[in-house]
Design brief:
Layout: E1 10-11, E2 40-41, E3 45-51, H1 57-68, E4 69-70, E5 72-77, H2 83-91, E6 97-102, H3 108-121, E7 126-129, H4 141-150, E8 155-161, H5 168-184, E9 198-201, H6 202-210, H7 220-230, E10 235-241, H8 257-288
Parallel strand pairs: 1-6, 2-4, 3-5, 3-7, 5-6, 8-10
Antiparallel strand pairs: 7-9, 8-9
């Protein structure tokens, strides 16, 4: 299906229902440069970038993504750093970039959900999500999209390759989450549960998110892969570098050790309950080599 043009940039409250959010404001337009000629264009795959108070780094991230792919959808999650206005100017007169501004911060998962709604309404089937803070490798967007085209039934997951900039506490901490994820999916093959550079089948992810009220904040990335695996969506892992930028380099982190680890603990608690309930079915699928355990 050839999608319709994505809606123009605008400010829009997030709907509290599962229905497609409706526009309620006049599009805000500004001057912008044309889409780079080298960017690959697609009628099925779109880049979705949630952004919250990342400062000027978001402009570099969006520009890097636009150099590789179009269209790109940016969802500004109630940022108060003035970047919403700058992104709206970037989006003006550029059909390959759309910016949606949420009225207040609601969390990464909620911002991704809004982007997925807009993408599906325009006819797109798959979305690559990436963070706005410069940690993810925009130059790998085409390779991840191609992997998704070859296996549209799968989710293409980034497997982080860390350098010396990675905080040791964060690297070790994610091993705990990865261990739980491996258990909760009965070893379906998720190499990393937290790295958000991924390509998702949009319909499957929307069905998962609409099925329960969680996954709206920092718990989004991990819960998405677990619940998609439960639905039979196979994980395919690809190496991708991750950068931890210093403050001098424009790096911004919204991770709060106590708050977010408490959120992850609650998430894994409810996922374990779901895992136990699904264990007979998962065992049956694994023995038969059924999705997500197929080769």
């Amino acid at each position: 299906m050839t999608p319709q043009a994505l809606p123009s940039s605008m400010t829009q409250p997030t709907s509290t229902t599962h229905a497609m959010p409706q526009a309620s404001a006049t599009p805000a337009m500004a001057q912008a440069s044309p889409t780079p000629a080298m960017a690959q264009a697609s009628s099925t795959h779109v880049v979705v970038i949630p952004s919250y108070d990342t400062g000027p780094k978001v402009y570099e991230t969006v520009s890097a993504a636009r150099m590789q792919w179009q269209p790109v959808v940016v969802v500004v999650d109630g940022s108060t750093d003035g970047t919403a206005e700058g992104l709206l100017r970037m989006a003006a007169d550029n059909p390959g970039l759309r910016v949606w501004v949420l009225p207040h911060n609601q969390g990464k998962g909620a911002a991704v959900l809004r982007g997925l709604h807009e993408a599906r309404a325009a006819g797109f089937t798959h979305a690559l999500t990436m963070d706005a803070d410069g940690q993810h490798p925009a130059d790998l967007i085409p390779a991840f999209m191609q992997a998704s085209r070859e296996r549209p039934d799968a989710m293409i997951l980034g497997r982080p390759v860390f350098d010396a900039s990675a905080p040791l506490l964060r690297v070790r901490g994610r091993r705990v989450s990865n261990w739980w994820t491996n258990l909760e999916t009965l070893g379906a093959g998720v190499a990393d549960s937290l790295y958000g550079f991924r390509v998702y089948p949009i319909d499957a992810l929307l069905a998962v998110m609409h099925g329960q009220r969680w996954m709206r904040r920092f718990d989004f990335d991990t819960e998405a892969v677990v619940r998609l695996a439960w639905r039979g969506v196979k994980p395919i892992n690809r190496d991708a570098p991750v950068k931890y930028l210093s403050a001098d380099e424009g790096g911004v982190s919204h991770f709060r050790y106590v708050r977010d680890n408490a959120l992850l603990t609650w998430m894994h608690t409810r996922l374990m309950v779901g895992f136990v309930l699904r264990l007979p079915l998962l065992l049956w699928r694994r023995v038969r080599g059924a999705p997500p355990f197929q080769r």
